[in-house]
Specification:
heterotrimer, A: ABC transporter involved in vitamin B12 uptake, BtuC, two-stranded antiparallel sheet, globular, B: mainly alpha
Chain lengths: ~325, ~300, ~250
C-alpha cells in the first residue's frame, strides 16, 4: 500500500485547509485593494496604517520562522528591526540615498547582528535563551541611544527616503504601500519554500526533539544559527521598510516592548504557520488602533485580553479559522 | 580620578547592586522553584514605589509609607499569583512570557489610571536627607547609605531564612524536587504563593527605596528588570548566592563604567571621541559582560549546587 | 579475536560523590551482539550515554574503528556510524512515521542546506525510508503521525530510524522496555533477524531477550564490570549469580 506522503503537520481535514485558503485569499485581496478603499473613503490614513501593519507582518513572519518552526523563543527580535532601520537612517544622513546601496547594506548588517547574537545565545536554551536575546536587544538599544550624532534618544529624521534612481519613488504613499505589499508577498513565498525544504524539515525536527536530531547525525547548532540569521535578515528588511514609511528612526524601534509585541503577533495569529503571523499582525495593530481610539488607557484592556488568549486560546486565529471551517467544533 | 571619587562611586555601585539583588532574589526563587519566568516582576517594583508614595502622602511619613506599602505590595503580589500566575506554572515559557507581558501592560496602565500620568515624588525625612562623612572630606548621602544597610540586612535575613529555618528547608525541597516535597507533606500551592509573596515584597522594597532617588512613574520597573535578568543569567538561575554576587558585580561594573570609562579612554583618544565611545561602551558594558560570561560558562558563574 | 569495532578503556563517570561508571573496559567485536546487563543503577544507561556522546566521561577512552571518539559530539558519532536508540522513546511526534525515518535518511545524505525544493515527495529520502519501515513491519503505518503509534510501534520506529543510517554499531538502550509480551517478542525477532548483519550493544532487562540474542554478555554492578563472557559461561559464573542473577531469574 502506497502511503500518503503527507509532510510534517498534524493531519487537517480538507475543509479546514480550504477555510484557511479562503481566509488567506480574502486577507490578501483586501490588502491589495485597500488603497482604493482608502481613496473612496477619503481616509488616506488607512494607507499608512495598513502599510505599517504589513511591515510588522513581515517582522512577525521572520520571528515565526525561528519561533514557530525552530522552537527558538527570541525575545530580542526588535534589534534587527532597529539595525535595518538605522542603516537606512544613518546612510541617508550621510547623503547615501540609493536603495541599491542602502538596502543590501541594511540586510548585511542585520545578518551580521543575527550571527553575532545567535552565535552566543544559541549556546544556551530555554529560559536562558529568552533572557539573553532580550539582553542583547537591550544592548543594541543602548548602543543607538548613545549615538548622539544620530539623534541619540530623540531619533533621527530621514529627510531623503531610499531612492530607486527614478525607477519608482517611495515619497509617493501609494507606491510605498505596494512596495511593502510586494515585499510581504515575497517574504511569504520565500518562507513557504524554506519551511517545506530539506532545511525546513531539519528545523522542525530540531524544534520537535533536538537531542534526537543530534543522535541521528545533525549538527543542529549550524542549522539553528543559519535559521536565526535568515530570520534576523528578514526582520532587517522590515526595518528598512519601517524607516522609509515613518521617515524616522529612533531607539524606540528596538525597545523590548516591540520584541514582546512581535511575539504577541505570532501567538495571536498562530505560530508555526506562515499566514498566522500576518493575521496576528493585522489583528494586533487594528485592535491596538481601535482600542486606543476608545480610551487612552487601552493597555489596561489589552493586557488582560492577552492573558486570556494565553490561558484560553488554542492555536491563535489560525486555529480559530481552522475550527470554524472544520466541523462544528 | 581621586581615591575619594573612586570610593564614592564604589558605594554607588554597591547601592545599585543591592537594588538588583532585591529584585533578583525574588525572581530567581520564583524561577528556581516554580519554573516560572515572570516579566511582571518589575511591575511589583513599580507598584511598591507607587504604594509607598501614596501611603507617604496619607501618613505624611516616608517610613510609615514604606511600612504600610510592604504588606500592601505583598497582597498585590499574592492576588496576582492566585488570579493569573498559578495557572501558568504548568505552561511552557512562551506562554509565561506572553501572559506576564500582558500583566506589565496592565500594571503600567493601571497606575497611570489611578495616579495620573505625572511622576510622583517622595520627600525624605530629615534624618535621611543629610550626608555622612564616612571618610573625611567625602560626604555621602545618608539615604543611599541606608539603602545599602537595609539591603545587606535583607540579604542576611534571606540567607538565614533559606538555610536555617523550616520554611527555608521547604523552599529548598520544593526547588530541588517538587514531587518529593509533595510527598513530604508540604502544601506546594501554599508554598508557591508564599514564595511569590516574598519575592513581591523584596521587589517592592527595592522600588520603595528607589522611589526617593528616581521619579516614580509608569514603566519604571522595566529597565531594572532587564538588568536583573542579566544578573540572574550571570549568577546562575535558581541560586540566591549567585544572584547576590552577580548583583554586586553588575552594580559596581555598571556604575564604575559610566563614571570612569570616558575619562579612561581619554588617555588613548581625543576628548570628544573618548567621551562618545566611553559612554557608548559604558551603556553596553553589562550586556557585553553577560555575553562573555555566557560564551565561556553557559550555566552562569555560580550555578546552584544541585538542581 | 579480530580487531574490535569498539574498544572501551577505563571509562569513568562521576556524579558528585557517586561513581556511576567505574573504570569500565570492554571490547565489541565486529558482527556480535553484545549485551550489557545488571541491576538498576548499575550504570548501564550512563555507559550508553557516554558511548552515544550525550555524556562526557571523566576518564578513559572510547575508540571506534581505530579512531578515538571520546570527545566527539553525538552528531559526529552518528556520522561515523554509531546509531542509538533511547531508553525513553524518542521520536518526532508531530511528524508522520515515514517522515521520521526520512529525516534520519536525510541526515546521512549529505548536508541539508537545501532551501528551495520541497522535501516532501523526495524519492531519494522516502524510498529507503519506506523500505526500512516495511522491513520493521510498519509499512502500513507510514502516513500516520508518530504520536499516534502505540508504544511498541514507536520503539520499532526508533529502530527503523537507527537502521536507515546504515550504522556499523547500534546502541540499543532497553529496546523492549515497557512492552507487553507480544510486542517484546516481535522486537526480539526483529533484532534476531539483524544478527550477523549489524553489530549491536544491547542494554536489556529482559533476560529472555538477552540470552536469546547475545553472543557475549557483560555484567555490571555498581558501575563496575564484574564479568564478560558467553551466555553459557555467564549463566554458570558464580560471582555473577551472587551479585546479580537470582537463581530464579536465570530461566
Amino acid at each position: 500500500m502506497k502511503p500518503d506522503p503527507k509532510p510534517v503537520k498534524a493531519p487537517s481535514s480538507a475543509t479546514v485547509q480550504s477555510a484557511r485558503t479562503t481566509a488567506i485569499q480574502i486577507v490578501f485581496g483586501f490588502l491589495a485593494v485597500m488603497p482604493l478603499l482608502a481613496l473612496a473613503l477619503d481616509e488616506p490614513f488607512y494607507l499608512t496604517l495598513f502599510g505599517r501593519v504589513m511591515v510588522y507582518a513581515i517582522a512577525a513572519l521572520s520571528l515565526d520562522l525561528i519561533l514557530g518552526y525552530g522552537g527558538m523563543v527570541s525575545f530580542g527580535h526588535a534589534a534587527f528591526l532597529g539595525v535595518g532601520a538605522y542603516t537606512v537612517g544613518i546612510l541617508s544622513f550621510h547623503g547615501i540615498e540609493s536603495a541599491f546601496l542602502q538596502w543590501p547594506a541594511a540586510l548585511l548588517f542585520s545578518a551580521l547582528a543575527a550571527v553575532l547574537i545567535g552565535y552566543v545565545s544559541l549556546r544556551t536554551s530555554g529560559v536562558y535563551f529568552i533572557m539573553i536575546t532580550l539582553a542583547f536587544a537591550q544592548m543594541f538599544f543602548y548602543f543607538f541611544t548613545s549615538l548622539e550624532v544620530y539623534g541619540g534618544d530623540d531619533g533621527l529624521t530621514i529627510w531623503k527616503l531610499s531612492s530607486f534612481g527614478g525607477l519608482i519613488s517611495l515619497d509617493d504613499n501609494l507606491t510605498l504601500y505596494y512596495v511593502i505589499f510586494t515585499a510581504l508577498g515575497g517574504c511569504l513565498y520565500l518562507s513557504h519554500r524554506l519551511v517545506n525544504s530539506h532545511f525546513g524539515r531539519v528545523l522542525q525536527g530540531i524544534k520537535s526533539n533536538e537531542t534526537r536530531m543530534r543522535a541521528i547525525g545533525y549538527p543542529t547548532m549550524r542549522y539553528k544559527l543559519l535559521a536565526f540569521t535568515i530570520s534576523g535578515t528578514m526582520c532587517g528588511l522590515a526595518g528598512v521598510l519601517l524607516a522609509n514609511q515613518s521617515e524616522f528612526v529612533a531607539p524606540s524601534y528596538l525597545a523590548w516592548h516591540r520584541s514582546g509585541e512581535l511575539i504577541v503577533m505570532v501567538l495571536l495569529g498562530g505560530m508555526g504557520t506562515l499566514f498566522g503571523p500576518v493575521m496576528g499582525a493585522i489583528a494586533f495593530m487594528l485592535l491596538a488602533h481601535f482600542l486606543a481610539d476608545l480610551t487612552i488607557y487601552w493597555p489596561v484592556i489589552f493586557g488582560p485580553f492577552l492573558i486570556a488568549v494565553v490561558l484560553f486560546g488554542r492555536g491563535g486565529l489560525h486555529g480559530l479559522i481552522g475550527r470554524m471551517g472544520g466541523k462544528g467544533g | 580620578m581621586t581615591v575619594v571619587l573612586l570610593f564614592e562611586q564604589l558605594l554607588n555601585g554597591l547601592q545599585l547592586g543591592i537594588m538588583l539583588f532585591l529584585m533578583a532574589a525574588g525572581l530567581t526563587l520564583v524561577f528556581g522553584i516554580m519554573n516560572l519566568i515572570n516579566l511582571a516582576h518589575g511591575s511589583l517594583y513599580m507598584v511598591g514605589a507607587y504604594l509607598a508614595a501614596a501611603f507617604m502622602q496619607w501618613t505624611g511619613s516616608y517610613i510609615w509609607g514604606v511600612l504600610l506599602a510592604l504588606p500592601a505590595t505583598m497582597a498585590v503580589g499574592i492576588v496576582t499569583e492566585v488570579v493569573v500566575l498559578r495557572s501558568l506554572y504548568a505552561r511552557d515559557h512562551l506562554d509565561q512570557v506572553l501572559a506576564t507581558f500582558g500583566l506589565i501592560l496592565f500594571f503600567n496602565e493601571a497606575v497611570r489610571l489611578i495616579w495620573g500620568p505625572q511622576p510622583q515624588f517622595i520627600d525624605l525625612p530629615e534624618f535621611l536627607s543629610g550626608q555622612i562623612e564616612i571618610i573625611p572630606g567625602s560626604p555621602y548621602p545618608s539615604f543611599r547609605l541606608g539603602i545599602i544597610l537595609v539591603g545587606l540586612a535583607t540579604a542576611a535575613f534571606l540567607y538565614v531564612l533559606v538555610t536555617h529555618t523550616r520554611i527555608g528547608m521547604r523552599i529548598r525541597a520544593g526547588a530541588s524536587d517538587r514531587v518529593m516535597a509533595g510527598a513530604l507533606g508540604i502544601d506546594i500551592r501554599l508554598l508557591f504563593t508564599l514564595v511569590f509573596g516574598l519575592g513581591a515584597v523584596l521587589a517592592g522594597l527595592a522600588g520603595m527605596m528607589a522611589a526617593p532617588i528616581v521619579s516614580v512613574q509608569s514603566g519604571m520597573g522595566e529597565e531594572i528588570l532587564i538588568l536583573t535578568f542579566v544578573v540572574i543569567v550571570i549568577g546562575g538561575i535558581g541560586s540566591i548566592r549567585g544572584a547576590f554576587l552577580a548583583a554586586i558585580l553588575i552594580g559596581v561594573i555598571d556604575t564604575m563604567g559610566r563614571a570612569f570609562l570616558p575619562q579612561l579612554l581619554e588617555t588613548f583618544l581625543e576628548r570628544g571621541a573618548a567621551h562618545t565611545a566611553g559612554s557608548t561602551i559604558a551603556a553596553m558594558l553589562t550586556y557585553l559582560l553577560m555575553a562573555v560570561v555566557l560564551f565561556f560558562r553557559p550555566q552562569g558563574l555560580f550555578p546552584p549546587r544541585s538542581r | 579475536m579480530a580487531e574490535p569495532l569498539l574498544r572501551i578503556d577505563g571509562l569513568t563517570k562521576r556524579f558528585g560523590g557517586l561513581i556511576a561508571c567505574d573504570a569500565v573496559s570492554l571490547d565489541i567485536a565486529p558482527g556480535e551482539i553484545h549485551a550489557v546487563i545488571g541491576p538498576n543503577g548499575a550504570g548501564k544507561t550512563t555507559l550508553v550515554a557516554q558511548l552515544g556522546g550525550a555524556l562526557r566521561p571523566d576518564e578513559g577512552s572510547v575508540v571506534f574503528e581505530g579512531r578515538d571518539i571520546t570527545r566527539a559530539t553525538p552528531e559526529e558519532r552518528s556520522r561515523r556510524g554509531i546509531a542509538r536508540s533511547f531508553q525513553i522513546t524518542s521520536v518526532f511526534a508531530g511528524f508522520s512515521a515515514l517522515d521520521n525515518v526520512a529525516l534520519a535518511v536525510q541526515a546521512h545524505a549529505g548536508h541539508s542546506f537545501r532551501f528551495w525544493r520541497s522535501v516532501a515527495g523526495d524519492a531519494e529520502l522516502e524510498d529507503p525510508a519506506l523500505a526500512a519501515l516495511e522491513r520493521i513491519g510498519l509499512g502500513d503505518r507510514a502516513g500516520d503521525p508518530a504520536g499516534d503509534l502505540s508504544h511498541g510501534e514507536r520503539r520499532q520506529l526508533e529502530l527503523a530510524m537507527a537502521l536507515v543510517t546504515e550504522p556499523r554499531l547500534l546502541l540499543l538502550d532497553e529496546p523492549t522496555a515497557g512492552m507487553g509480551r507480544e510486542d517484546s517478542d516481535r522486537m526480539i525477532a526483529l533484532l534476531d533477524a539483524l544478527k550477523g548483519e549489524r553489530t549491536m550493544l544491547l542494554v536489556e532487562h529482559d533476560m529472555d531477550a538477552v540470552f536469546a540474542l547475545a553472543d557475549r554478555i557483560t555484567v555490571m554492578t555498581y558501575g563496575k564490570v564484574i564479568a564478560t563472557d558467553t551466555p553459557a559461561a555467564i549463566r554458570a559464573n558464580e560471582a555473577v549469580r551472587a551479585a546479580y542473577l537470582g537463581t530464579d531469574e536465570v530461566a
